[in-house]
Amino acid sequence: MQIAHHTISRDAPPFIIAEMSGNHNQSLERALEIVEAAAKAGAHALKLQTYTADTITLDVSEGEFFIRDDQNLWKGNSLYDLYKLASTPWEWHAPIMERARELGMICFSTPFDETAVDFLEGLNVPAYKIASFENVHLPLIRKVAATGKPMIISTGMATLAELDEAVRTAREAGCRDLILLKCTSTYPATPKNSNVATIPHMRTLFNCEVGLSDHTMGVGAAVAAVAHGATVIEKHFTLCRADGGVDSAFSLEPEELRTLVVETERAWQSLGEVRYGPGDAEKRSLVFRRSLYIAEDLAAGDLLTRENLRCVRPGLGLAPKYYDMLLGRRVNRDVKKGTPMAWELIG
After folding, report:
1. Is residue 160 within 8 Å of 180, Cβ to Cβ?
2. Would you say residue 18 has pLDDT above 80?
3. DSSP E strands: which ranges in 72-171?
4. Same domain assignment for residues 312 and 168
């Protein structure tokens, strides 16, 4: 399948998405710097999130609308205040997308409700992402599918039944190009709870492209995901974690993103095919194998012994497997030390 001019396939390098999320810290200048840094690091796409606090939650600061969980990165905030801080102003979308295009990078977004889809259609985005927390929002999935554009869905906490329902809904509503991203909805996630072995299973079950939306630190999980067949990798991205921001704690910095791009492509290149024997690049090295060589000057009629027949490098003599068979045989001519052993030398 294609997203703009990029091919998404196991026959193409992994498609790397840098997720800006709320790392702009409410500065358009910083947002544009993030675009430039992502492009310089080699990301193929930049992704935004399109919502307002009012389209995603209610302006309530108590009960379940207030985060008290000690394990939550955003403890001490109401959902409304958190989303107000993290949201990307809609009027920023056009200049951010324009800067990405100027730098040769795709830019698209995650809509969180139907009004966001209408807005993004006006900007002619090339694809849509459904966030892991929204994969049960079937009306939103139908709305996105109806655009006919490629859709990426993060699996997050979805059960297999919920994921099947989301995929069926997307396809029945017109989605032809679908990508599922294995995702662990903890922030940050750990490699241990990433379960990238799920990736080939998803490909088999749903017959679509698969990848990883990765909230772990570093690039190890992403490289492992590519080894399991991931064709898309999404990572949160910031200029500097020390600058703070709602998602900075689990976001890559520019040099780390560059490493991600390089190492996932190397992982993809290394997959190859099931193959044994020397490859074309290895054939010149066959000479450095061990083989059988005459280790002392011999006269015609001399017996081959462990002292005068050795298994050494290089590999131009008979194979070592013939060593025991040759011991005790007589050479049929004078032979100099350093001569590769050959059948013609024995009578």
Report:
1. no
2. yes
3. 106-111, 128-130, 151-154
4. no
Last residue of a domain, one of 226, 246, 271: 271
Stretch 132-149: mean pLDDT, rounded?
97
Q: What is the DSSP string of 190-245?
A: -GGGT-TTHHHHHHHHH-SEEEEEE-SSSSHHHHHHHHTT--EEEEEB-S-GGG--
Q: How many separate domains does the chain show?
A: 2
User: Counting Cβ atoms within 10 Å, is residue 85 exposed (0-12), middle (13-18) or buried (19+)?
Assistant: middle
Q: If you ran DSSP here, which 8-state letter would residue 66 be given?
A: B
Of residues 79, 76, 80, 140, the one with CA closest to residue 111: 140
User: In angstroms, how far apart are the furthest CA atoms of the chain?
Assistant: 102
Distance CA 262, CA 105 (A): 17
Does residue 341 contact residue 309 with C-beta atoms inside 8 Å?
yes
Each residue's pLDDT tens digit, 293-321:
999 999 999 999 999 999 999 999 999 99
- Whether residue 216 sits in one domain with residue 144: yes
Same domain, 114 and 153: yes
Confidence of residue 77 (pLDDT cuts 50, 70, 90): confident
Q: Do residues 264 and 226 lie in contact, with contact meaning Cβ atoms separated by under 8 Å?
A: yes
H runs (alpha helix) in 42-154:
53-56, 79-86, 90-102, 114-122, 138-145
Residue 72 lies in a domain: no
Domain boundary among 220, 245, 271: 271
Q: What backbone phi and psi angles, to 5 degrees, belong to 161? A: -65, -45
Among 303, 308, 270, CA closest to 292: 308
Query: Can you tell me whether residue 152 is helix, strand or coil?
Result: strand
pLDDT for residue 73 is more than 70: no
Tokens 């083989």 belong to residue: 291
- Four-residue CA torsion sign, 195, 196, 197, 198: positive
Domain of residue 303 covers: 283-345
What are the C-alpha distances in Å from 268 to residues 10, 15, 42, 211, 321? 8, 11, 16, 13, 37
Q: Tell me the whole-structure pTM to 2 decimals.
A: 0.87
Are 254 and 290 contained in the same domain? no
